[in-house]
Backbone:
């Protein structure tokens, strides 16, 4: 059975600025962050998701965003190579966690940036991978070789949507939620060609990280403040669970960034 | 022109990375040739493309390559061209690189050196001391000469294509038909002639005796007088019949003004040749006042350079005719520098011979009454050829009429090409 990996926000905080959302002068409220993270944890548990926890480490405030730890397919953990030195300390901790649980560890060649599930999402049989701000497109080629799957590389062009999971969220029926303006025209064409049933997110809701949702069977857990998307997904028979995510949005993350599927693909 | 070779790997077709990369090259002022492409057969198979990127300066190429790197392009290590010694005079080494009529570069110790001139069906002689490379025909190969072999370290530059709108040289390319709207095409050709003249490009005319037989000589003379002919390649026949007409008023014994046969007219061209032979040559006949009109007379008077190449069916020939074909070919090649337009009229074999000497960048116009000749001439592997199936006289008449018009009415357009 699939599980979700979460990391408690014990050392979370806005301690550096590596994306346009982060502003050290606009720090996150720690009690609120803990409450919001706990809310997500409890909601997912209530929906029946088995949850695993990795222990948070000091001086690694973004370790809470487990989606960027790597990509899990079957028993394989493809470990991330973070672009920013600020996050590279997370790599060993995640690797240890998976190694201790007998996962096969795959590493990208050194210097080849890859930020895990944040930039790699299966939609149907196809793996969609984002590049430019964080992951290097050459890591996609390696993924295709490792996983023997079709990889569609899409360029991200809006720096507020720096990971694929901030602007693209596959749905179990083969469709996806997406914010087209986050992609260049070639990426938009490639996605339209390969995904039937795309649901566009309006800019205001995209800025609330509407696409950064956790999809568990017919349940969708997403940040609050996305009424239009909620309506259109409910019309398709999904149960929507909006949660406050304000403190994590300050670091450029929300529901999906806080979770990693084990495995994303069996 | 500067260049860099890049490789792309992965699912570059489904992700539209390949078209994106090619578009980026063009929109950033470069051009490209796809050297190799392998498309994956299965859904998850990766594809591969090897692309030569060209630009007008190293900065442009570097800028493009920097952009392409973020789309996964990897720069291919440059390898120096391989060379081998020619085993004997007139013999290339095995595996020698055979040139096309497109601009070609060889890599000599990390530097891309242009091979000059761009001529098809030649080898490339490399001088490692002076860092020069030139195309050489069999006749120019000397034993021990270093000749490029294999394909490594050799790049072919694509011909520039117009981007604003399709010029006559593109929309007519290789589609030869007597049904084409000739007047519009001839107007465009006139505009190209004017542009070439303004830009200082040389116009080459390759003409057969039909120019004289059809009575088009007077129009051709106008082209010469107006400065639209810089170089004439022809055979003995064009000059002989032109001079026959100048001296006797006939071409192959037919009065061009009356269309009637002259008495004993068949002798006229032989007598004309004899007159010139007695004078010592065409130039001498002009200076002695014996030759006072016609195409060749105008060439002499207006300083138009010409090469008359001989053939086995020539009468005479005229003293100016170069009868050694290898020498004639060499002489013709030596005069092609700066030619931007080649107008070929009414001579199949001579035109094909010249077509083989021309770089692909030369705009070529082929005019003949026989469609198969025009097809053969247009289909010389050049991107910029226009063929017209028509009699030469009406073609030249109309061309001179358009050229006589002021620029605004002759559809002059700005040359807009990508570097």
Residues:
């Amino acid at each position: 059975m699939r599980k979700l990996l979460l990391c408690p926000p014990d050392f979370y905080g806005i301690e550096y600025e590596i994306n346009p959302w982060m502003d050290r002068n606009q720090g996150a409220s720690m009690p609120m962050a803990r409450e919001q993270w706990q809310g997500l944890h409890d909601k997912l548990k209530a929906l029946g998701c088995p949850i695993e926890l990795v222990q948070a480490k000091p001086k690694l405030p973004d370790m809470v965003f487990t989606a960027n730890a790597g990509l899990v397919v079957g028993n394989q953990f493809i470990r991330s190579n973070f672009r920013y030195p600020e996050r590279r300390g997370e790599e060993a901790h995640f690797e240890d966690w998976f190694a201790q649980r007998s996962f096969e560890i795959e590493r990208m060649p050194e210097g080849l940036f890859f930020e895990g599930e944040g930039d790699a999402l299966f939609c149907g049989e196809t793996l969609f991978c984002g590049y430019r701000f964080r992951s290097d497109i050459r890591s996609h080629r390696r993924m295709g070789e490792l996983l023997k799957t079709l990889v569609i590389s899409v360029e991200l062009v809006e720096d507020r949507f720096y990971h694929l999971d901030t602007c693209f969220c596959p749905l179990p029926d083969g469709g996806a939620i997406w914010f087209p303006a986050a992609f260049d025209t070639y990426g938009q064409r490639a996605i339209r060609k390969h995904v039937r049933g795309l649901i566009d997110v309006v800019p205001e809701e995209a800025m609330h990280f509407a696409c950064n949702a956790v999809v568990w069977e017919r349940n969708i857990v997403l940040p609050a403040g996305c009424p239009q998307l909620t309506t259109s997904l409910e019309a398709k028979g999904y149960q929507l669970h909006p949660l406050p995510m304000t403190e994590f949005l300050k670091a450029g993350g929300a529901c999906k960034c806080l979770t990693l599927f084990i495995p994303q693909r069996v | 022109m500067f260049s860099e070779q890049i490789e792309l790997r992965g699912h570059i077709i489904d992700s539209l990375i390949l078209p994106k990369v090619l578009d980026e090259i063009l929109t950033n002022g470069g051009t490209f040739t796809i050297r190799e492409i392998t498309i994956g057969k299965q859904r998850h198979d990766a594809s591969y493309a090897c692309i030569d990127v060209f630009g007008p300066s190293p900065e442009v190429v570097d800028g493009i390559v920097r952009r392409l790197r973020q789309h996964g392009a990897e720069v291919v290590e440059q390898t120096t061209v391989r060379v081998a010694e020619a085993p004997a005079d007139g013999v290339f080494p095995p595996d020698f690189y055979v040139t096309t009529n497109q601009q070609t570069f060889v890599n000599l110790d990390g530097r891309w050196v242009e091979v000059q001139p761009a001529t098809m069906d030649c080898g490339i002689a490399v001088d490692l001391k002076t860092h020069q490379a030139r195309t050489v025909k069999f006749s120019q190969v000397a034993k021990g000469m270093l000749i490029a072999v294999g394909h490594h370290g050799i790049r072919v530059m694509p011909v520039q294509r117009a981007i604003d709108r399709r010029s006559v040289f593109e929309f007519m390319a290789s589609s030869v038909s007597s049904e084409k709207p000739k007047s519009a095409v001839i107007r465009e050709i006139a505009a190209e002639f004017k542009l070439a003249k303004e830009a200082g490009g040389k116009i080459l005319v390759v003409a057969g005796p039909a120019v004289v037989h059809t009575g088009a000589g007077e129009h051709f003379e106008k082209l010469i007088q107006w400065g639209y002919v810089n170089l004439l390649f022809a055979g003995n026949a064009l000059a002989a019949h032109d001079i026959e007409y100048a001296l006797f008023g006939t071409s192959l014994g037919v009065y061009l003004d009356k269309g009637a046969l002259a008495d004993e007219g068949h002798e006229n061209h032989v007598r004309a040749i004899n007159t010139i032979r007695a004078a010592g040559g065409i130039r001498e006949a002009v200076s002695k006042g014996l030759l006072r009109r016609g195409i060749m007379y105008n060439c002499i008077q207006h300083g138009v350079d010409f090469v008359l190449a001989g053939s086995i069916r020539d009468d005479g020939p005229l003293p100016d005719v170069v009868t050694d074909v290898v020498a004639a070919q060499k002489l013709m090649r030596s005069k092609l520098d700066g030619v931007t337009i080649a107008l070929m009229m009414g001579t199949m074999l001579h035109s094909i011979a010249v077509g083989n000497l021309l770089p692909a960048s030369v705009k070529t116009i082929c005019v003949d009454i026989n469609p198969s000749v025009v097809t053969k001439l247009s289909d010389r592997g050049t991107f910029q050829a226009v063929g017209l199936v028509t009699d030469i006289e009406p073609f030249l008449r109309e061309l001179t009429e358009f050229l006589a018009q002021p620029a605004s009415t002759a559809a002059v357009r700005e040359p807009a090409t990508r570097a």
User: Anything to note?
Assistant: The longest strand of chain B covers residues 2-10. The CA atoms of residues 131 and 153 of chain B lie 14 Å apart.
